[in-house]
Amino acid sequence: xxxxxxxxxxxxxxxxxxxxxxxxxxxxxxxxxxxxxxxxxxxxxxxxxxxxxxxxxxxxxxxxxxxxxxxxxxxxxxxxxxxxxxxxxxxxxxxxxxxxxxxxxxxxxxxxxxxxxxxxxxxxxxxxxxxxxxxxxxxxxxxxxxxxxxxxxxxxxxxxxxxxxxxxxxxxxxxxxxxxxxxxxxxxxxxxxxxxxxxxxxxxxxxxxxxxxxxxxxxxxxxxxxxxxxxxxxxxxxxxxxxxxxxxxxxxxxxxxxxxxxxxxxxxxxxxxxxxxxxxxxxxxxxxxxxxxxxxxxxxxxxxxxxxxxxxxxxxxxxxxxxxx
Amino acid sequence: xxxxxxxxxxxxxxxxxxxxxxxxxxxxxxxxxxxxxxxxxxxxxxxxxxxxxxxxxxxxxxxxxxxxxxxxxxxxxxxxxxxxxxxxxxxxxxxxxxxxxxxxxxxxxxxxxxxxxxxxxxxxxxxxxxxxxxxxxxxxxxxxxxxxxxxxxxxxxxxxxxxxxxxxxxxxxxxxxxxxxxxxxxxxxxxxxxxxxxxxxxxxxxxxxxxxxxxxxxxxxxxxxxxxxxxxxxxxxxxxxxxxxxxxxxxxxxxxxxxxxxxxxxxxxxxxxxxxxxxxxxxxxxxxxxxxxxxxxxxxxxxxxxxxxxxxxxxxxxxxxxxxxxxxxxxxxxxxx
Amino acid sequence: xxxxxxxxxxxxxxxxxxxxxxxxxxxxxxxxxxxxxxxxxxxxxxxxxxxxxxxxxxxxxxxxxxxxxxxxxxxxxxxxxxxxxxxxxxxxxxxxxxxxxxxxxxxxxxxxxxxxxxxxxxxxxxxxxxxxxxxxxxxxxxxxxxxxxxxxxxxxxxxxxxxxxxxxxxxxxxxxxxxxxxxxxxxxxxxxxxxxxxxxxxxxxxxxxxxxxxxxxxxxxxxxxxxxxxxxxxxxxxxxxxxxxxxxxxxxxxxxxxxxxxxxxxxxxxxxxxxxxxxxxxxxxxxxxxxxxxxxxxx
Lengths: 325, 337, 299
Known about the structure:
The complex is a heterotrimer. Chain A is of the alpha/beta class.
């Protein structure tokens, strides 16, 4: 049975200039111990769809879906109080900017212990013990001293470790990591990803990794969802995706990786820009930039077709034999 | 932290000299003959004039006079009132508790109401509650408080006859001064009804004096909260599944307080200026009324002394607020350590 | 580049900026109401002679302390009359002039002197800066109204002296604001570019940098305009501002104060006039601040 099951998730934002659709038809199944990666450019709706699951979007956002369930709880109709019992405990999330995601006015020990108090109702002594244990687990040296530190006294990588400790404090079943390494130094990035993967192995929680880094995807994920302009365009197992991408956007994205174009003079690029609120094409959202575009792509919106774990939103998928390099 | 305190105190020294220079210059810049102005005598004989000149030290060079003046100040001599012939400091200290009591009551009112409604408006941003609260506080902020006081007197004192309109306590009571705070002294005296009478007399002045600080605190709390609510750490707090009370009341408010504390500290100046008007309207026997009276009766030594003393009080409050700011903001307290 | 083309482009950018500014300003309905109300007040001040039903100084001896009436046969005064039988409405309308002039004068004085000191402090830094800023700190360490009272005691009571005194107490805000935004702008690339291309000291100070510091100063000026009206009225009320029989709003309240229980309209209406004028300007000031604030623009 799926841990988290989402069908046709849409998120609209009310703005001064009318409504704007940030997420447009996302299907998702996450089973226990799964590692799913969501890739896409900035603004492709990958963070927004996960924030919708957490119920963390501002009130200007309107969330609709055919189904959005976590362990049988309908997240669309759940009361705020019941939701607060789930998020932070069964579903935890870490964010892009570790430095600003921690409250500057409280010690990191307090901030971790707060979660323990909220969900596990531990007493003071047990909270302290578990906090130190958690800091140790995420690889922070001298945890007994660090619990008294304020966030501004720690580096970005350290802060992200604290955030991870906070997230795994209540043994979550699902951890959502929203671009956890984007704001960090390159050398630290690998450490944080390793830490996440190790923790996932040890605890068996499911992991959703939101990223735009294809390298991270290849190393960690089991399954990958590719998003473009708010739409889910493809879903595959990680080997399949890298070996035979079906959607032209995925294909173009992979072709743009420096590792894949060693024999070329210039790195391939995807011409054009992601459509904004005002210039959405009528048909397939990728059609203005697609190399394989045909007339029906411009006229009709391709539906998301699922076959097993795979899903694809394209009329004319890329032939695995002809990758169009 | 220690060096932070030292730096803050050192900053006050030039301001102290600035204020004393102003108050020193004030007496010398008065129109007409300073001797006549200060001695409060008219038609002096030339001998008497020369004698007064020497007694007031006006025959010495200006810089020497200034250093004499500062020297005396540092030894607690703030001059002598021409009108009552008593040391200015004594008069000031006698009247100050009345102003302090009223000021604290007004500040308390402003904080107790201003802070929660500011928070509430920020949480309910854009709703009718927010607009209502912000509209009312803009009216409060725009209020000519001397008129506001008169209006309340007309309504509550005159038309409805609910509250007394002047003084600190009914003339029926004769309460012994112990602390100078009438609310405490009436309780100590044990006289029946005295405390109630003192409270009754305080209601209108407190509302009048508290109105502008209340409006400012509400507005600033709202904007500080709005700024904080968009921060990532508030999202983190919500992602932990914490209750709204904890998210807003602890995580957001604690950060917003860093700004709000400063704003509250700055209200002390507003309160002193407001006290001048409020005390005049309600015949409240405090510093504000005293200084206006001194200006009108040309008791310039009293004005001069009052000026320096009030400036010193405000400087010390600002210092305390600065230190408090350092204490509440871990980014200041825990650097250099 | 051709200089006429340059200036044409400049004016185009300026027009676009003004349009964009107006767009954000007009989003705020309360601010627009404030602006309209303020324009009404200004109109009333200019044409007081035509609008006011009576001469503000004529004493109608038969109609002393007449309550407000509408359409009465005898002694028909919309806002009533004061202790000397003068028409309150006309006195309030004429009072608009004084309050607006006082507010305007204070703002002009503060802007011109404040900007000058602020730019000088920001440009020279060092001891010049320290001296100017310590003087400003000194002024700030005494409550504004008390400082103004002391200054009026030196200068002598009167509307003009009240304006000067109030200007001095507001000066520090303008100096601080100019100095801090000047220092921030001074480190930016366009200033360095201007220095490298050999612009004169004066040009850098007032033509290159100053226009970029104006937004917060305009907001401060608006807010000072309203507080100046309040403080002028307060000084008038305390008897240290405009002197009777000048129909200044604060003075009106002071001269009728003894009547406040028997003839409350003589006190109520002038105060209401102050409140509404100040409120309108503050509404507008809030709108200006929001329209200038790029942070709020994004949302």
